[in-house]
Amino acid sequence: ARLALNVIGCKNNGLHYGFYHTLYADSVEGARTEAKIFLTSIKGYDPDFPVYVDTEFWTEKNGWTNTKLSKRLWTDMVLAFGEECEKAGYYFGVYASRSFIQNTLLYDEL
């Protein structure tokens, strides 16, 4: 309900909008699953801006952290997420710090 209200608010005030999703997956299949869930939540909306996957480091309360994932896996997860978004008809982008892109992703493949 909050999403719908925010989109209506944007439209009523002449604001452009887009969507992003913070990636918590630790596998390519997990990234695809997250993308499908994300796409279900934005289905029916026609954003002015691309949809973005937000990539960042995090640590769970149990101590598991995604900081140990390889560049190959990070890149494959981002690409898988993007493929799902583009397949659904959205423009796709990656939201990350410069440092994250340079040091954690295989930039030339994005």
Biggest pleated-sheet summary: 3 strands, parallel
Helical/strand content category: mainly alpha
Total count of helical runs of at least 4 residues: 4
Terminal Cα separation, in Å? 33 Å
Task: Give the beta-strand count.
Answer: 3
| Low-confidence spans | none
Mean pLDDT: 92
Radius of gyration, whole Å: 15 Å
Q: How large a portion of the residues is in β-strands, by DSSP E? A: 5-15%
Largest beta sheet: strand ordering: 1-2-3
Give, in order, the helices and strands. Answer: HEHEHEH
Q: Characterize the overall form.
A: globular
Considering DSSP H and I runs of 4 or more, what fraction of the residues is helical? 40-55%
Keywords summarizing the entry:
mainly alpha; 110 residues; 3-stranded parallel beta sheet
What does this protein look like?
This protein is mainly alpha-helical and 110 residues long. It is 45% helix and 11% strand. It has four helices and three strands; from the N terminus they run αβαβαβα. Strands 1-2-3 form a three-stranded parallel sheet, with helices on one face. Strand 1, helix 2 and strand 2 form a beta-alpha-beta unit. Helix 2 runs parallel beside helix 3. It is globular. The chain starts with a helix and ends in a 6-residue tail after the last helix. 22% of the residues are buried.
